[in-house]
Structures are given as structure tokens and as C-alpha cells.
């Protein structure tokens, strides 16, 4: 059982009053316990490695949809939404860091759910995180097959390329610690920067293909479907607890968060503005498809590492949740978590295999996968990225402190608005995504399951 120790109160100037456990006896609550004699040491990441992981996880697929969002809702609305949602995502991410400092044993959303609502909260949030992350892995499988089909001009059956992507991701997910994957994330970041640079140069050389609009006249469903792409581009919060749990100094998480948010918001704006300015109304998603055939193949070739590695990070976080759930009971972890035992390794590999097998199947079986991913994002990303941080704030802030000063009153109003925002995004996103699925069936625009049709751009 977890031992209780006295707590100290820390005032965070910009966010909330909250209590944080003292640094003395840090292993009493930590998810991995005392690692001095452990064969597998998890808490080894410095803050910049955590930032690299977060960048690789968040930017890889998110950046590819931003130009088409600008083309759909207009330049002005696109810029405002990227800046606004990015700023709010920074605040909610910071609150997740505070919650982790207050409860060091929290490793994932399931643990947070148990604190908020007992066993029911644990099962609901844990199940939601697993489902969401498996679908995100499926989106990487689908993007991988599109990349391979584009590079090879459809030389082989697309199902084969989906399987190849899933197998590569499975193999790279096998390292047990995030520190081992963090080096790959640097490659991932360089990969996506190189790919979008080639794309921007390509559209620039090709010249303007039409006029751009500052605003657009759209139906609510069409406009909000585009907005969900921006929300998905900031949907890395679901893995933050796991990243912090493997940092040497969890209190340095804020540095990693600020690096992430400055980098991804800047990249989204640059790529969105440049690609849309030149491609105009012909802008397509993913953004790498806006160049000619040769540059398109080169861009996808360079982007392959980020497509795969970002999927690996999501798969690893998902697998780690299940692994910890199996080998940690009532706050006590099994020796299989921190030793090179046969049981530990076989369980870990089996979990990784199950995740990527499911990701492959749902990406191939569901003909409207992209739209279904929109449904999943509306239901889960709306809360993991935004709404749940408001709930965390109310949990961390005693009732008697919420209306004491004008600053506390503003915070109470702000975090209440964040909860309402999460609910609104969920409902509106569901409406827009389901509408898109209905329209797709009416137009016959969905492929058959396990089709060998060339999916390249």
C-alpha cells in the first residue's frame, strides 16, 4: 500500500495552489520504486529527451493536416485557432505536470482516474487511453501504407505495406524504457522537418495555384471537422504522465512542455501559411501531397522515420500502461517490472504484438477509418488534451480557496470554461465526424476492407 507522508503547499503563480509531496523519500510513492538495484532503470530521461519524445509524438501527423485546415476554414481563422488552441494546450499540459507532482505514483490516465473517481474512474480513463492510443497507432499504419504506396507508385498491394509498417513499429516498440526510444525521436523530428521543408520549397517553386481566402463560408459540420484536425495536432497530452514518470527530475517537465508548445505551434503556423499560400484551394492532406510526383516521393521517403517512430512512441505508452497494470498491484510492483525475467519480457512483447496487430486490423478493416479516428478524437482527445485538466485543477484546489481572491476567481472561471470546452468539442466533433461518415457512404467514397488498391497520393 502507498505510505502517506506529510505534504507541503506550493503556490504556482500562473495556475493553481496545490500540494506537492516533499522530495524526501521520493521512492515511497513513485511508480517504479527504488531503482538503485534494478536491472532495468526507467527514470533516466533528462528534460530535453522528454521534449524530443513529446515533439515526435505530437508533431509527426498533426503537422501534415494543418495546410488543408487553412484551406478549409480560411487563413485568419486557421492562424487564430492554431495560436489559441496551442496556448490552452500549454496551460492544460502544465496542469497535468502539477497533478503528477502532487501524486508521484500516477503513471497514466487510469491512475489519475482512480484518484478522481475510484475504481470506476480507473477503468473508464484507462480503457479510454488504451482505445485512443490503439486508434492513433492505426493511423500511423495507414499513413505508413500511403507513404510506401506513394514512394513505390503502388508497386505492391497496400495491405502488404500496412503489414510492413506494423511489423517495423512492433520491433521498434520492444525497448522497455522511453530513454531508449528518445534517441529515435531526434531522428523523427529531423525527418519531419526535412519532409516539410522539401514540400514548402516544392510548392514555392511551382508558384501560386490560386487565390487564398482570409475566411470561408462553410456549414458548421464542415468547419468543425477541420477544427478537429487542429485539436488532434495538439493531442499528445495523453502520454504526458508516462513521460514524466521516466524523467530523472519530474519537476523539469515544464521545460519540456514549453519547448514542445513553442516548437509545434511555430511549425504549424509556418507550414500552414506557406503551403496554403502557394497551393491555394488545391491544398490536400497530408501536406506532403501538394508537390509534384518526384518531390512527393522524396518527401514521403524522408518522412517515413517520423511516421514510424511517432507510432512507436504511442504504442510504447499504450503498452506500458497495460504492463504496469499487470505487474503493479496496490502500489507494490512485481520484480518482473525491473528485471530481465522471462515472464517480464514475454509479457511485454505479447502486449506490444497485440497492440500493433489490433492497429493493423482496424486500419484495414474499417473502410471509413479516418472519419472514425475523428470520432475517437472527439470523444477522447477533447478530454485528454483539454477538459480533464480542468477537473484536475478543481481536485487540486480546495473548495475554500477557489473564490478567495480576484486571481483565484479568474482561475476558477477559466478552468470551469476548460471543462465546458472539452464537452463542447466532444459533442460538436462527434456531430461533424458522423456527418462526414454519412456523406462518405452516400458518395461511395470509402474503400473496401483489405483492399490492394493503390492508396498513394
Shape from CA axes?
Answer: globular
Pattern of helices and strands: EEHHHHHHHHHEEHHH
Q: Please give the order of strands in the largest beta sheet.
A: 1-2
Rg over alpha carbons = 22 Å
Number of continuous helical runs: 12
Specify the helix fraction band.
Answer: 55-70%
Q: What is the terminal-to-terminal distance?
A: 54 Å
Largest sheet: 2 strands, antiparallel
Q: Which structural class do you get from the secondary structure elements?
A: mainly alpha
Assembly level: single chain
Low-confidence stretches: 1-28
How many strand segments?
Answer: 4
Quick overview of this protein structure:
The chain has 457 residues and is an all-alpha fold. It is 69% helix and 3% strand.
Overall description:
This protein is mainly α and 457 residues long. Helices cover 69% and strands 3% of the residues. The strands form two sheets. It has a two-stranded antiparallel sheet. It has a two-stranded antiparallel sheet with strand order 3-4. Mean pLDDT is 84; it is low at 1-28.
Amino acid at each position: 500500500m502507498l505510505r502517506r507522508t506529510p505534504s507541503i503547499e506550493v503556490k504556482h503563480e500562473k495556475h493553481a495552489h496545490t500540494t506537492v509531496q516533499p522530495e524526501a523519500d521520493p521512492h515511497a510513492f513513485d511508480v517504479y520504486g527504488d531503482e538503485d538495484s534494478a536491472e532495468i532503470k526507467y527514470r533516466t530521461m533528462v528534460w530535453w529527451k522528454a521534449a524530443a519524445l513529446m515533439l515526435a509524438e505530437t508533431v509527426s501527423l498533426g503537422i501534415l493536416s494543418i495546410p488543408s485546415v487553412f484551406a478549409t476554414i480560411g487563413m485568419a481563422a486557421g492562424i487564430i485557432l492554431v495560436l489559441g488552441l496551442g496556448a490552452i494546450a500549454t496551460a492544460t499540459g502544465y496542469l497535468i505536470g502539477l497533478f503528477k507532482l502532487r501524486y508521484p505514483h500516477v503513471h497514466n490516465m487510469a491512475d489519475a482516474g482512480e484518484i478522481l473517481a475510484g475504481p470506476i474512474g480507473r477503468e473508464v480513463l484507462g480503457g479510454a487511453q488504451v482505445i485512443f492510443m490503439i486508434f492513433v497507432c492505426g493511423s500511423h499504419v495507414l499513413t505508413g501504407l500511403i507513404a510506401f504506396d506513394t514512394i513505390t507508385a503502388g508497386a505492391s498491394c497496400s495491405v502488404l505495406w500496412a503489414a510492413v509498417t506494423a511489423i517495423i513499429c512492433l520491433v521498434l516498440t520492444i525497448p522497455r524504457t522511453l530513454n531508449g526510444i528518445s534517441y529515435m525521436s531526434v531522428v523523427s523530428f529531423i525527418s519531419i522537418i526535412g519532409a516539410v521543408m522539401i514540400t514548402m520549397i516544392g510548392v514555392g517553386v511551382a508558384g501560386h495555384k490560386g487565390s487564398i481566402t482570409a475566411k470561408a463560408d462553410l456549414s458548421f459540420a464542415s468547419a468543425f471537422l477541420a477544427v478537429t484536425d487542429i485539436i488532434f495536432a495538439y493531442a499528445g497530452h495523453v502520454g504526458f504522465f508516462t513521460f514524466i514518470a521516466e524523467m530523472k527530475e519530474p519537476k523539469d517537465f515544464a521545460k519540456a512542455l514549453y519547448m514542445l508548445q513553442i516548437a509545434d505551434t511555430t511549425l504549424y503556423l509556418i507550414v500552414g501559411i506557406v503551403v496554403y499560400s502557394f497551393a491555394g484551394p488545391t491544398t490536400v492532406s497530408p501536406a506532403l501531397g501538394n508537390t509534384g510526383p518526384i518531390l512527393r516521393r522524396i518527401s514521403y521517403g524522408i518522412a517515413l522515420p517520423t511516421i514510424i517512430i511517432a507510432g512507436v512512441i504511442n504504442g510504447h505508452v499504450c503498452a506500458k500502461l497495460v504492463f504496469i497494470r499487470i505487474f503493479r498491484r496496490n502500489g507494490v510492483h512485481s520484480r518482473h517490472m525491473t528485471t530481465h525475467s522471462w515472464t517480464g519480457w514475454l509479457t511485454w512483447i505479447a502486449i506490444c504484438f497485440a497492440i500493433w496487430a489490433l492497429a493493423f486490423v482496424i486500419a484495414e478493416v474499417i473502410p471509413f477509418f479516418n472519419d472514425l479516428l475523428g470520432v475517437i478524437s472527439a470523444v477522447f482527445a477533447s478530454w485528454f488534451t483539454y477538459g480533464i485538466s480542468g477537473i484536475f485543477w478543481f481536485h487540486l484546489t480546495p473548495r475554500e480557496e477557489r473564490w478567495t481572491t480576484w486571481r483565484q476567481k479568474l482561475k476558477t472561471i477559466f478552468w470551469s470554461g476548460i471543462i465546458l470546452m472539452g464537452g463542447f468539442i466532444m459533442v460538436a466533433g462527434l456531430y461533424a465526424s458522423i456527418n462526414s461518415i454519412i456523406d462518405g457512404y452516400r458518395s461511395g467514397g470509402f474503400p473496401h476492407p483489405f483492399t490492394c488498391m493503390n492508396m498513394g497520393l
